[in-house]
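Entry: SDT1
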Amino acid sequence: MTTETDGKSNETHFIPGQPVEYVNPELTELEQAKPGRTVNLKFGFGPIPSNASNKTIFFFDIDNCLYPRSTRILEMMHDKIHEYFKNNLNLNDEDASKLHTDYYRTYGLALEGLVRNHQVDALDYNSKVDDALDLHAVLRYDKVLRETLLKVKKLGKFDYFWLITNAYKNHALRVISFLGIGDLFEGLTFCDYSKYPIICKPMRQYFDNVFQLTQLDCTDEAVLRKQWYIDDSELNVKAAFDLGVGHVILYIENEQDMANLKKHTDYKKYFAGNGRRIELLNNFSSLPDLVGP
Ligand SMILES: [Mg+2]
């Protein structure tokens, strides 16, 4: 066990490249006993050993990708952010909504606007927004998801499974433990809210950091072409595709979202061209078929 909690800030400390084990204190003993409830990341938050360079890695986004939107976690998160704007900036409902939307449009992350313009402590924000979400109430042990990921693993095409998220590490670890998939990944790259400026997807620096931590030589086209990545964000998958990642998948579960996507002027370029393109997946259980034999 290489992680510890200092009790005061509930911050998990870690040693670069060392395994990370996380036991979710919110789970009952019975819940904890199921496979995948304890998180075990062999290479922790990276870097992976330098003698394991240029492997074939499947990168997975977490939120709204490994669990469905019907959990309404996105809406729960919006409510918490709204409360945070109201309480910390002393705003009424209307002004809080306006500013939240404004920052989201300008910076891509509401948090970025808070840190930049109001000197908000990003880790305080994280403790009151992401870490305060009642995930236990909405995220069930997902046997079907677990079997789907195991099927993909058994295809034998991948050296490692790696999580990449715009959330902070606490949220990521909680989510995968609730879902019961904490033993299926070698590592995790998170958005480090303790650093400024905040580097998140779809920024180039975020992906560069991921490639560095997973020992992928991103100057070598052939290395990037053999990597796999799935995310529910159109912006993120386009960014990875533009960087040269070979197998990029947009997870899009909602039919209306799919219809809207098809109206975009760059739809053909990214999703329907001959040759290399972003694949679309509307049912996560079909992932093994998409990856192929
Ligand atoms: Mg997502």
